[in-house]
What we know:
Elements: E1 3-7, H1 11-22, E2 26-30, H2 34-53, H3 59-67, E3 69-72, E4 83-86, H4 92-105, E5 111-114, H5 121-125, E6 134-139, E7 148-153, H6 159-171, E8 175-178, H7 187-203, H8 208-219, H9 225-232, H10 234-248, H11 257-264
Helix pairs in contact: 1-2, 2-3, 7-9, 7-10, 10-11
The chain binds 3-hydroxybutanoyl-coenzyme A (3HC).
Residues 18, 47, 51, 54, 56, 117, 140-142, 144-146, 188, 191, 222-223, 228, 232, 236 line the site of 3-hydroxybutanoyl-coenzyme A.
Amino acid sequence: MKKVGVIGGGVMGSGITEVISKAGIDVVNVDIYPSGLENSKKRITKDMAYLVKKGALTREEADLVLRKITYSTSYESIKDCDFVIEAVPEKIELKKELFSKLDEIVTKEAILASNASALKITEIAGGTKTPERCIGMHFFHPAPVMKLVEIMMGKETSQETFRKSLEFASRIGKIAVPAPESPGFIVNRILVPMINEAAFLVMEGCNPKDVDDAMKLGANHPMGPLELCDYTGVDITYGTMKALYDGFKDEKYKPCPLLIEMIEMGKCGRKTGQGFYKY
Length: 279
Ligand code: 3HC
C-alpha cells in the first residue's frame, strides 16, 4: 500500500485522511472545493497539535504525519492510488457519479471504497464498469479515535476486494467487522433509532441533560444520545433515520418530528452552535 486517495474534505474525509497518514501511508485528500481542503487541513493540524501537547506524539512524528498528506482539487492526483475511499455527502446520485468518474481515472488494480453510512454499495457501484473492486467501508466519528470499520460487500464485490479491504483496515489500525448491505448496516441501525427515541423523550417534555445523564450513568455510554446527536450533527442523524425509514418501509423507523424542526431552525448541533445544547 503506497498511496491512498480520500475524496471529501469534510469531518469524515479529514478524519480518514489523518488515520491513513498516521499509519505511515502517503495520502491525497481531494475535494473539488478549496474551502473543503482548507478546513480538512486545519482539523488535521489541530489534531496533531493536540496529540503533541498531550505527549502522544513528538513534534517530529506529528510533522511526518502532516507531510504524508497532499491536498488537491483534481481527481487526476489520485489516478495512481492503490486504494481510494470516498466520504462525500450521503446522496446516492452524487456517490454514483463519483464512482463512475473514479472508475475511469483510477488504475484498474485499485480498490474503490465508499464511506456511505446507509446507502448500498451495490447501487453506488452501479455507476462503474468494475463493481467487483467496489466495497463499503464505513468509519465512525471521530475517525482517528473510533476503532471500528464496517465492511459491506456489494452483490458483485469480489472476494479479493473483500480480503484486501480487511488487510487495509488492519494496516491502518482499525478493527473490521463485516456487515450486511441493509440500511444502517449494524451500528447505525441500532444507534440512530436510540438517538431518535431520545429526541422523542425531549419532545414529550424531558430535559436533554436528564436523558443524557441517564444513558451515561445507566448504560455506561461515553456520551449521552443527545450529546452524540449534536456531535455528529442533527441533520446527519435525521438523514440516517430517514434512510432506515425509506429502506425498511417500517413505521418503527419514523424520524422524530423534533429533529426536522431543529434542522429547519438551523439547530444542527455543535457545527451550528446549537442543537439540543448551546455551544
Ligand atoms: N488521534 C488519535 N487519538 C486521539 C485523537 C486523534 N486525532 N483525538 C483524540 N484522541 C485520543 C485522546 O488522546 C484520548 O486518548 P487517551 O484516552 O489515551 O487519553 C482519547 O482519544 C479520547 O479523547 P478525549 O480525551 O479528547 O475525549 P473523550 O475521552 O471525551 O472521548 C470520544 C471523546 C472518543 C468522542 C467519546 O466521547 C466517545 O467515544 N463518544 C462516542 C462517539 C460515537 O459513538 N461515535 C459514533 C458516532 S455514529 C457515526 O459516526 C456513524 C456515522 O455514520 C454518522
